[in-house]
Design goal:
heterodimer; A: alpha/beta; Rossmann fold; 18 helices; B: mainly alpha; 0% strand
Chain lengths: 471, 111
C-alpha cells in the first residue's frame, strides 16, 4: 500500500493469514472424517475462520468498523443462542437455516457489488460480472430453498410434497427467464431492475425447487443447498478478487457435493430423482394405503411388551424420528439398562438415515449415554436380526418398511432397510396408524409377528419400563 | 490477481474439497454437513471487504444485513456442530471397558 501502512496491513501479511486459514479448513475437514477427531477438526476449522476474518479486517480499505461491529453483534446475538438452545431433534432445520442465511448473505453482497459498479460508471468487466450474476442466482436459490426446507422440517409447512400442475415446465421456464435476464445484463444492459428481477426469479425458483420435494429427502436437499451456497461464495470470491472466499467457498462446494452423493447413496436415491420431486407423494401402486387399511393390525399393551422383553435373550431396538420427537432416548436407555440387568442383550439398530438426517440417531443415543458398541450400523445388525427374539421399533417407519425389499412398485423399492421383520417378534411403538414421513404404507404393521403399542414413544417406553420393574 | 490465477486456485480447491471427504462414516454425515455449512459463512469476509467503500444508506444497510447473516452462519454453524460432536466425545475409551463388563453376563445367560 502506498501510504504508511503498518506491517500488519501489508496485503502479503494478510495473504499469509489466509493461507493459515486454508490449512486450518482443510486439516479440520480431514479430522471431521473420523469420530475420534471430529470435534477437534471442527474447532480447528473455526480457528481458521477467525484467521480469515481477522486478516480481512486488517486491510486498510476495510473501514466503517462501527457498521461491521453492528452487523457482527446482531449476528452473534441471533446465532449463539439459537445454536445453544436448539434441541437435538431440531438440529437438521437449524443447519438448513444457517445455510440459508449464508446464501442470503451471498445474494445481498452480489447485489450491492452490482449497485456499486453501476454507481461507479457502469457494468463491471465480464470476468467480474459473470461471477456476480452466478452468485446472485445461486445465493438467492439457496436462501429461499433452505427456508422452505426449514419450514418443512419444522412442520410450519406440510412435509409432504407440494406439487402444482406443470411444476417441471414452470421451473424450467423460471430458470430460463432468470438466465435470460442474466445474459441481457452480461451482454451490456445496465439495469438494477433487471438484476432485482434475477434475484426475485431465483427466489421463486428456490421455493419451487424445494416445495415439491418430500420430507424424507430433505437431508439430501439441505446438503445440496449447502454445496450451492459454497459455490456461490466461491463465485463472490472471484468477483471480489478475494482468495479466502474462493478457497473457502470452493472447499464447501466440492466437499458438499461429495457429501450429498454419499447421503443419496445411503438412501438409494439418485439426486436427479430427488430433485424431480414427488417422493412419497404418489400412493404406491400394488399395496396402496387403501387396501392397507382393511388389513387387521394387532395392538398390544405395556405389560405384554414388558414380559416379551424381559424373557428374551436378545432385543434389538430400532429407533426413528418418533423417538427423537418424544425425547424418549433417556427412557429407552433406562429400559435397556433394566433389561441388561436381567441378562438380556440389547443392541440398537441404526439405519443411516433414520430420523431426519444421517447420524441423527447416533447423536441422540450418545446423548443418552448409550454405550458406543451397542449402536450397530445397518449392515452389521441385519444378519443378527433373524436370531433376535424381539425387535422393538420406536417411532421408525420407512426405514423398516419391507416394501423396500419386496415391492417393486414402491417408491422406496431398493432402499436398504433394517430387516426387523425377520426377528421372531416385532413390537412397534407408534403414535397412530399414520404413514411415515415419506407417506408410504408399511406392510410390516400387518405381519403376523408384529404387535403395535400405540401412544407417545416416551410414555409407552416409560410404561413398559415400569412393568419390567414389576416383574 | 489475474483471472487465470484465481481459476487455478478455484480448481485446485475443488479437488482438495473432493479428496478431503472420503470414507466418512454415516454417523458423521450430519456434523460434517454442519461444519462445511459453517465454513461457507466465510461470505462474511465479502461483506467486510465491501462495506468500507459502499456508499449510500441502502448499500450500507444491505451489507450490515449480509454481515449479520454471515456471522450467524459462522458462529451458529460451528457451535451447532460442536454440540453435535460433543456427544461423540467420550465414546472411544469407555466402549472397551463396557464391552468387557457386559460380556460375562451374556455367557452366564447362555449357560
Amino acid at each position: 500500500m502506498t501510504y504508511t501502512a503498518s506491517f500488519f496491513q501489508d496485503p502479503d501479511f494478510i495473504r499469509v493469514l489466509y493461507i493459515v486459514a486454508f490449512i486450518c479448513f482443510i486439516y479440520g475437514l480431514r479430522l471431521l472424517n473420523h469420530p475420534r477427531t471430529a470435534r477437534r477438526g471442527n474447532m480447528i476449522a473455526a480457528v481458521g475462520m477467525a484467521f480469515a476474518v481477522v486478516g480481512t479486517l486488517l486491510y486498510d480499505f476495510v473501514s466503517d468498523y462501527l457498521l461491521i461491529a453492528v452487523g457482527m453483534a446482531v449476528g452473534t446475538v441471533v446465532g449463539v443462542p439459537a445454536a445453544r438452545s436448539v434441541k437435538m431433534t431440531a438440529m437438521p432445520q437449524m443447519v438448513a437455516l444457517f445455510n440459508g442465511v449464508g446464501g442470503g448473505a451471498v445474494a445481498l453482497i452480489s447485489f450491492v457489488e452490482y449497485r456499486e459498479a453501476l454507481a461507479a460508471g457502469g457494468n463491471p468487466e465480464l470476468e467480474q460480472l459473470i461471477p456476480i450474476l452466478f452468485a446472485a442466482i445461486v445465493g438467492s436459490i439457496s436462501f429461499w430453498g433452505s427456508n422452505i426446507a426449514f419450514g418443512k422440517l419444522q412442520e410450519i409447512l406440510p412435509g409432504r410434497p407440494i406439487q402444482l400442475p406443470g411444476q417441471q415446465v414452470l421451473n424450467i421456464a423460471l430458470l430460463a427467464v432468470v438466465l435470460a435476464c442474466a445474459v441481457i445484463i452480461a451482454a451490456g444492459t445496465e439495469s438494477e431492475l433487471l438484476f432485482l428481477a434475477i434475484l426475485i426469479g431465483a427466489a421463486l425458483l428456490g421455493n419451487m425447487f424445494v416445495l415439491p420435494i418430500g420430507g424424507a429427502d430433505m437431508p439430501v436437499v439441505i446438503s445440496l443447498l449447502n454445496a450451492f451456497t459454497g459455490l456461490s461464495a466461491a463465485a463472490a470470491g472471484l468477483a471480489l478478487d478475494n482468495v479466502a472466499l474462493i478457497v473457502g467457498g470452493m472447499l464447501v462446494g466440492a466437499s458438499g457435493s461429495i457429501l450429498t452423493t454419499l447421503m443419496a447413496e445411503a438412501m438409494n436415491r439418485s439426486i436427479p430423482n430427488i430433485v424431480a420431486g414427488g417422493f412419497g407423494g404418489v400412493t404406491v401402486a400394488g399395496s396402496g394405503a387403501g387396501d392397507g387399511e382393511a388389513k387387521p393390525v394387532r395392538s398390544t399393551d405395556a405389560a405384554d411388551v414388558a414380559i416379551q422383553l424381559a424373557y428374551a435373550s436378545k432385543v434389538v431396538v430400532a429407533p426413528g424420528y418418533g423417538m427423537a420427537v418424544a425425547q424418549a432416548q433417556h427412557t429407552v436407555r433406562e429400559l435397556a439398562d433394566e433389561l441388561e440387568k436381567r441378562g438380556v442383550r440389547v443392541d440398537y439398530a441404526i439405519h443411516p438415515v433414520a430420523g431426519r438426517m444421517p447420524g441423527h440417531m447416533n447423536v441422540l443415543l450418545a446423548e443418552a449415554d448409550v454405550p458406543y458398541d451397542h449402536l450397530k450400523e445397518m449392515d452389521d445388525i441385519n444378519p443378527e436380526l433373524p436370531q433376535t427374539d424381539v425387535a422393538l421399533v420406536i417411532g421408525a417407519n420407512d426405514v423398516t418398511n419391507p416394501a423396500a425389499r419386496e415391492e417393486e412398485g414402491s417408491p422406496i423399492y431398493g432402499m436398504p432397510i433394517l430387516d426387523v421383520d425377520k426377528a421372531a417378534q416385532v413390537i412397534v411403538l407408534k403414535r397412530s396408524m399414520n404413514t411415515g414421513f415419506a407417506g408410504i404404507d408399511n406392510p410390516l404393521f400387518y405381519n403376523e409377528n408384529t404387535a403395535l403399542l400405540f401412544g407417545d414413544a416416551k410414555e409407552s417406553v416409560a410404561a413398559v419400563l415400569a412393568e419390567v420393574k414389576e416383574l | 490477481m489475474d483471472l487465470l490465477t484465481e481459476l487455478t486456485i478455484l480448481v485446485l480447491a475443488a479437488f482438495v474439497g473432493f479428496e478431503v471427504i472420503s470414507k466418512v462414516p454415516n454417523t458423521l454425515h450430519t456434523p460434517l454437513m454442519s461444519a462445511t455449512n459453517a465454513i461457507h459463512g466465510i461470505v462474511l469476509v465479502g461483506g467486510l471487504l465491501l462495506i468500507g467503500e459502499a456508499g449510500g444508506f441502502l448499500n450500507e444497510l444491505l451489507l450490515v444485513i449480509a454481515i449479520a447473516f454471515g456471522t450467524i452462519n459462522v458462529v451458529g454453524g460451528f457451535l451447532v456442530t460442536d454440540r453435535m460432536l460433543e456427544m461423540f466425545k467420550q465414546r472411544k475409551p469407555p466402549p472397551k471397558q463396557a464391552e468387557a463388563a457386559e460380556e460375562p453376563p451374556r455367557l452366564e445367560e447362555a449357560a
